[in-house]
Amino acid sequence: MIRNFVLFLIIGVTFSNSFAQSKIVVTSNFPDAKIFKMAGTTKIEPALGIGSVELRLSKKEMNRIVIEKEGFEPLIQEYPRTRKWPKNVQVTLENRVVEINAEPYDAQIYIDGNYVGVKNHQLIVKKDESPTLEIKKKGYKPVIKTYYNSDGKDVPPLREVLKLEDRIVQVKVTPADTEIFIDQNPRGIGSAEVIIPKNQCVLVQAKKEGYVLEEKVFCNKENDVVPPFNYNFTLKDRIVKIVTTPSDAEIKVDGKVVGLGDYDLKVPENNCVEVIIAKESYLTVKKNYCNSKDYQEPPIRDHMELVEDEAYRTSISTDLANVNFTIVVNPKIAEGDAWKLLSSIVTTEFDVLEVIDKDTGYMRTAWQVQSFNGESTIRTRIIVKLGDSNPLKYVMKISSERADGVVSVKEDQDFEEWNRILKKYKNVIEEAQSRL
Questions:
Q1: Quick check: 365 and 354 in contact, CB under 8 A?
Q2: 10-17 — which CB contacts under 8 Å span 24+ positions?
Q3: Which domain holds residue 217?
Q4: For 258-308, how does the pLDDT look when each residue is reduced to its tens digit (9 = 90+)?
Q5: What total number of domains does the chain contain?
Q6: Residues 232-256: tens digit of each pLDDT
Q7: φ/ψ (deg, to 5) at 310
Q8: Are residues 297 and 261 located together in one domain of the fold?
Q9: Any idea what the CATH number is for the domain that residue 302 is in?
């Protein structure tokens, strides 16, 4: 009797369990999620239901279903009849999905630094994770974006098209300590990554003290030249900052005045440039700057201080220098007496007469030479010519010439006419005019 009762109890419990597991209700956390039956790995259309379904459990299969909702990773669940399930089963879609499309088509896609492909990718953002996406292609500024699947953060989009539009040029400079400027703003020394936004141009400059600035404009516009991947600046031409004392001294290059007091002198590669610093009453300074391996490197700055010329202190500025002056002889003075008087006046200051011819009325003294500071040489002489016999006239000229340095009086090519006369000769013409 007892044995039959136990057997009946076991059969009843088994029957009860079998009946309870014949079906369950599966409910998604999203009421619009679609629930499909699966045969192996194949989804069976149409859907079993939306949001919630009553799932009959078969003894012969794993009772696999898939829950789908746009923007979420599909969730595959199995409910084998061999396990005991509650009547109501809650399923939760948690992992987000973002359909990524990258442009250009050959742009590379990386997730957290790992390469995953080109053109498109299905990004799965798991619950409470934040993967970082990077789109890269040589010559373009990468697009980097982080997606979140956490409470309090922005919900990832369903789809996103990420375009590489801004260009990048890797700039290097020589010398290596040259500073790089982008649109007048400092961006690095030696090298820099230059970003050129779409439909814009940027000015890149390489600057180093003592060198001529180099610059280049890069544009990222339609139908324009595509910027290069790499660009090298090589500073070759030098700049010398010349400053003078006095501050108004003339600075001459190639015979032309290029500045007063200060000037940025350009010295091209493998060339030399002569600079002349000049100011009246000061000794002229000449200097060569060379930008060649065969010469000393030009300085970044050069202060040129002029020395006062002693010749100016012992001379006067006059319109009598190097000009013919006519002296009309008083009719009461005979021609012979006039000639003697002229000779006497001239030889008072000039000891040596190089040429004298009374018959033609021509007289020329030898050059009188005087050096000053060891930096300038002044030579002076007087020439007298007969201007007319009736009435009697003589033409007198004081030749005054200057040369830089200590120069032989015979080096005519070194001398130039000087608009000054040494003070000791200033009265010669006035005396001749007054006495004749």
A1: yes
A2: 17/84
A3: 167-234
A4: 999 999 999 999 999 999 999 988 888 999 999 999 899 999 999 999 988
A5: 5
A6: 999 999 999 999 999 999 999 988 9
A7: -60, -25
A8: yes
A9: 2.60.40.1120
